[in-house]
Amino acid sequence: MIKQAFLIRGGHLLTMDSQLGEMPKADILIRDGRITEIAPSIVADDARSIDGSDCIVLPGFVDAHRHMWQTQMRARMGNGTLLDYSAEIRSVFSACYDPDDVYIGILMGYLDALNAGCTTLIDHCHIMNSLEHAEQAVQAFKDSRARGVFCYGFFQNPEMHKPDDLQRLLSTPTRMVQEARTIRTKHFTESGRIRFGTALTELEWFPIEYTLRELQLARELGSHKVSIHAGLGSSSQYTRFVERLAKANALAPDLHFVHGWGLNDKELRLLSDAGSSLAATPETELQMAMGFPVIGRFRRAGGRASLGIDIVSNNSSDMFTQMRLALQVVRGLENEACAKRRLFPDALSWTTEDILRAATIDGARALNLDGEVGSLSVGKRADIQMIRKSDINMVPVVNAVNAVVLSANVSNIDTVMVDGEIVKSGGRLVRNDLAVLTEMLKASSARIHERAQSFDIPTIRSALQTVFPISHKESMEQRFASAIFNGPSKRLHDWLMKIAVKKANGHRAR
After folding, report:
1. In this structure, are residues 251 and 245 in contact, taking their beta carbons and an 8 Å threshold?
2. CA Rg, the chain, in Å?
């Protein structure tokens, strides 16, 4: 089916294309979902005309890491630590979702993203409690009309009304292997709008064999990207996770690491040299003690980091917030380094254009989709957003890049287009069912919270303290474990794992 042609006229283009750069007044012609021409003036009488003269026109944002299923938990963890989040969202509420809850949560999460100008996303989807859960997650992604990578998560969530066991984290059940294959075969192609990926269990604290086992499966499934949480601040800086992967010759461009502050400089260079990508999620990381956004350190190591929103159960859902936080934190860290030498910086090494690239073309590159999206370039898919210049918080636009990064917000986005189709127009999503969907989301959230009341969160939190130590004793135990797991002795690995499982299960049995 041939899609409608569009002609965006007279827009102020921030193309993020290294050849085209910024074009203060230009037209964009779109045919069959692709950008076919960019020029100061284009004539196309058969195309629907869109007036861009009052707008900054740029590619849609690329969200390089998000857990879309958590929409029902919006802002619940506003005062929570990573330990609180792991005990509540990951170890309780994840067990309380029915397949219908997964569908409405993920669908509304994607609509929220599109409303905020994010047209391409990678969903690290660790709510795969059954085949039905997975089916509904994929269907919601499709129905949203967004683009991106769906990463089937191997993490095993606890089950309602069943005693928990740390052993669930250490093995990928046959059920999940079979279901991942079913989802991959049934729903995905190599060139579709949504690509298949996988998300590994958070196993950096444990022997590397557990990660390698999942990684082998991910590659057997033909994953477009493999999403990996790693380097979660001080809680994992002794694990040397990336170094161990490198020793196993497992690093490659298909790996997409998330967070990363706990990785040392050598590990960041290993990622860069291997072509592996890295995403920072500034708002989550700053609140949950996962360190400062790693984008500055990764650039010094030779890489170009991307940005993600991560969890709306914790923080805001728009890229504008993440850009500002990341930019000013990396500037602040560099300024502090100067101050410690009793010097004053003569220039800022990070510019607004640098951070806008992280949110667009560098994000697309991280997801291996830069040949399709991330810039306004002839031949690429028409994933475009238009930001009004005349709104009170924008006027006057003296510098368009600065205005997008430092002044704009979601309310300024007038139009969003994905694959040459308009999904937001006149500042509103183009759907007639939003009121119904909103009520469904609220009802789902209420059901999930009611189910969660049967869990003993304090006991679960206590059991997780060996992973997220809050005492000096627990921190020393973690360092000791990391030292053993960095060594070659499988006998010592197995011995320590038995102790860890027994200890964690003992906490839960109290």
Report:
1. yes
2. 23
CA distances from 17 to 55, 223, 374 (A): 18, 28, 9
**Domain range summary for the chain, segments of one domain joined by +:** 6-60+380-429, 103-155+164-366
CATH of the domain spanning 6-60+380-429: 2.30.40.10
- pLDDT tens digits along 63-89: 999 999 999 999 999 999 999 999 999
Query: Contact, 223 vs 254, CB < 8 A?
Result: yes
Prior bond to 40 cis, omega within 30? no
Superfamily of domain 103-155+164-366: Metal-dependent hydrolases (3.20.20.140)
* pLDDT single digits (tens) 4-62: 999 999 999 999 999 999 999 999 999 999 999 999 999 999 999 999 999 999 999 99
> If you average pLDDT over every residue of the chain, what do you get?
93
DSSP code string of 225-259? -EEEEE--GGGSTTS-HHHHHHHTT---TTEEEEE
Structure tokens at 236: 């994992």
Task: Calculate the CA 400 to chain-centre distance.
Answer: 26
Q: What is the pLDDT, as a whole number, of residue 504?
A: 59
